[in-house]
Amino acid sequence: MTSILTRTLRNLPLTYTWATKFPLRSLTTSQPLTTAAQTQSKKTLTKPNVKNIVVVDGVRIPFLLSGTTYKDLMPHDLARAALKGLLHRTNIPKDSVDYIVYGTVIQEVKTSNVAREAALGAGFSDKIPAHTVTMACISSNQAMTTGFGLIASGQYDVVVAGGVELMSDVPIRHSRKMRKLMLELNKAKTLGQRLSVASKFRLNFLAPELPAVAEFSTSETMGHSADRLAAAFSVSRAEQDEYALRSHSLAKQAQEQGLLTDVIAFKVPGKDTVTKDNGIRPSSLEQMAKLKPAFVKPYGTVTAANSSFLTDGASAMLIMSEEKALALGYKPKAYLRDFVYVSQDPKDQLLLGPTYATPKVLEKAGLTLKDIDVFEFHEAFSGQILANFKAMDSDWFAQNYMGRKSKIGAPPLEKFNTWGGSLSLGHPFGATGCRLVMAAANRLRKDGGQYGLVAACAAGGQVSYTSSIGVF
To answer: Among this protein's residues, is 434 annotated catalytic?
Structure first.
């Protein structure tokens, strides 16, 4: 797995003077869901002496708003449900799986290797190795590409990859001073030693430490970064709200038309069976305009309506070498062909990863933007998506920031997130990558397309990109 670092030209800082350089086309909330893909090329992208790696299938339990039906569960409960659903969907013999890898971000301390605990709970053999990775919002992307690498290198033939996040319950620690005191107290042997340690206690030691929501390196929240990025690229509040409404409207249509086939029912212990995502809530531009800025107050443009929400959920995907899949009688959904990880300045360019990564992965695969039939991008914020559109469609940005002669171009909206995105479907940090890949694969098959491009930005200024082919 290779992370490609891109240089940042610090002599060209992001400023509000960019406003006149990046016009934006209008959006629509009535995008048809069945636009036929117009394939420009029939190249197979098969590489000599390299295994073809395929996605057999993938599932996810419904993505739910944090604090709702999953609130009393633990992360391994959600991951276990996704793994059981994958077993049921694919009928893969449990002993045929060689390796399991899961992504997560906010780790439950009792199940630090959630992949292992979930696998055992789902009934997989204790002889199957499992490990957990974390890479912020692209954790399950990293899980998938880790599996890709294990198969490509010839180590294994069958890998299960997935991700999980439970934002309803996050670890809250004692303060560092209190933790230190408790450790010293645990080591004390005599009553006198214990009393000596206890005498150091102060009332302020009881103040808890909440999980950080800000970037460690910049001390800035991602919401603040999104607000500054939107301002830098002159993305208005109205444009952001319109894009968010598009996401919710398309997700609602896709849900009602039964297109979200990766979603499986989950009988929550002690509660009802959950069958669908519960964050899809189309509103109106008038209602959205009434919300106050969430981060930069009082003049910011990022609000709760045009941001992804805290979400609980889990996903799982079955990846194999093509040879193994065909030997087991499967008709896979898509090939996984190429992937790229890039990183850039985590302050001013935290969410611009798609702009930097798109040309890299396309060039690596020998494709152009016009070859792509399906785009699935993670929607952290409306402003993040629209700012990337403007940057990708700017020769000025390409020349001054990326060292390229010309722009790559922005994805056409008729091919972009046409079944909704993270703004509406939800964003369990560790699980979103698998959702994106399955959405791309299912859209390719439904519309007769060949190439799909999947992207997800992440904290730390990183991004994952994958190109796939869905022709069988």
So the answer is: no
